Amino acid sequence: MKILIVGSGGREHALVWKLAQSPKVIKIYCAPGNAGTDLLAENVPLKDNDLNGLLDFARNEAVDLTVVGPEIPLALGIVDLFREHGLKIFGPTAAAARLESSKVFAKQFMSRHQIPTAAFRICDSRVSMESATNNKAFPFVIKVDGLAAGKGALIIRNQQDLQQAAQAIWEERRFGEAGEKVVLEDFLFGEELSVFVITDGERYVILPPAQDHKRIGDNDTGPNTGGMGAYAPAPLGTAEVMQNIENKIIIPTLNGLSKEGIPYTGTLYCGLMIDGGEPSVVEFNARFGDPETQVVLPLIESDMSTLLLGAAAGRLNQSDLKLSRKTAVCVVMASAGYPDAYEKGKVISGLEDYTENSDTVVFQAGTTRTDMQFKTSGGRVLAVTALADDLRQAITKAYEQVAQISFAGAYYRRDIGQKGLMRQKFSPGDM
Ligand code: AMP
Ligand code: GLY
């Protein structure tokens, strides 16, 4: 089987790495890829939004399966286009991807199908937002409708935050078209959990629950980032919590979409808030998460190509998923300054003589390679992942590996997985 992966981050390196383990896969292309994907796949210089270029490439090379990493090509309709030309592709159609690309659609869909989520109102002007927020108790959340590269959710804690948000959305039009409507929603308390579902529209498998670390600073302080680390399975996702998620969120979402004539295929990423064991949806994404993928895929022992092709071809077999009993931890190493401006081109040392063994792997994100040197080229640079028998050992192993790697200004959080350890300590009966 020949596979094309679309995207260029740590998530895509993890997909390439996992698919390369399959004896059925003879060739992997990655468009555009990074220095890490280049080690196992052939990088193709096509951007993820160049739908026609990707289609031509897949046809010319007789690619058997295309797997889409990021949300932009999905929202642009890459799945619809490939299917029109008879090509197999893993991901949702543009209509189904609206669960991620339109927060207004997602919230209205959830309310039509009684899927638990924060109470909300939709506003389409400064005036309607001001009247909806008048006398509303802080904190609450304002989210722009469209895709905003993870920057579209504004937590409003006081009058000043509200004024700044109104200014940015309605006066400066900082979010462009994405900010023509906004969702105003209640603040949810609790702890976040990411759950990926792979589905062919009818059958589905649920992957081990993961927890991301969105803020730049230790103890969840400072601005939001793309994600600074993850671990899976997260002890927060007990058997009881996972059952609740399946019954109250996953089944009604997949059934609701089918009933509305937009069956979902690909990965449904449920971004959840868990409060007292009860899940509510914070957001849906139409793709695998980054960096959660870097901890979830290493826990899959079965052939990933069978699973993804099954979902793309409408014949997913639940018994095709075999999971490891280990725990995976991933620590993201970022450029100094991230998530604001940062410098590129720093030489990375410790990767040249790095040999992957069965329980540590360094996934690359913002990297390039010239001659024999790896250099930084993005905000999130590396996702260092370790597997072990339990969370504590996996954390230790991941940080031991991080200590072997360096580049000027490298920054990483020191507390990845600590929330999971605390939960194990205080509620061992939940395990
Ligand atoms: P989103 O863009 O919807 O993924 O939101 C980004 C982040 O903002 C989430 O991962 C949460 O940490 C936070 N957030 C979003 N919505 C809420 C909410 N209703 N209550 C509390 N935190 C939220
Ligand atoms: N880890 C957050 C995301 O992929 O959106």
Give a description of the structure.
The protein has helices spanning 10-20, 51-60, 71-76, 78-84, 94-101, 103-112, 126-133, 159-171, 239-259, 293-296, 304-313, 391-402, 418-426, and strands spanning 2-7, 27-32, 42-43, 65-68, 89-90, 120-123, 140-144, 153-156, 182-186, 191-199, 204-206, 211-212, 215-217, 221-224, 229-232, 266-275, 278-285, 327-334, 347-348, 360-364, 367-370, 373-376, 380-388. It starts with a strand and ends in a 5-residue tail after the last helix. The protein contains 13 helices and 23 strands. The protein is 30% helix and 26% strand. Helix 5 crosses helix 6 (103-112). The chain has a five-stranded parallel β-sheet. It has three domains: 2-91, Rossmann fold (3-Layer(aba) Sandwich); 119-186, 2-Layer Sandwich (Dna Ligase, domain 1), CATH 3.30.1490.20; 191-430, ATP-grasp fold, B domain (D-amino Acid Aminotransferase, Chain A, domain 1, 2-Layer Sandwich), CATH 3.30.470.20. The structure holds adenosine monophosphate and glycine. Adenosine monophosphate is lined by residues 118, 141, 143, 152-153, 185, 187-188, 192, 214, 271, 282-283.
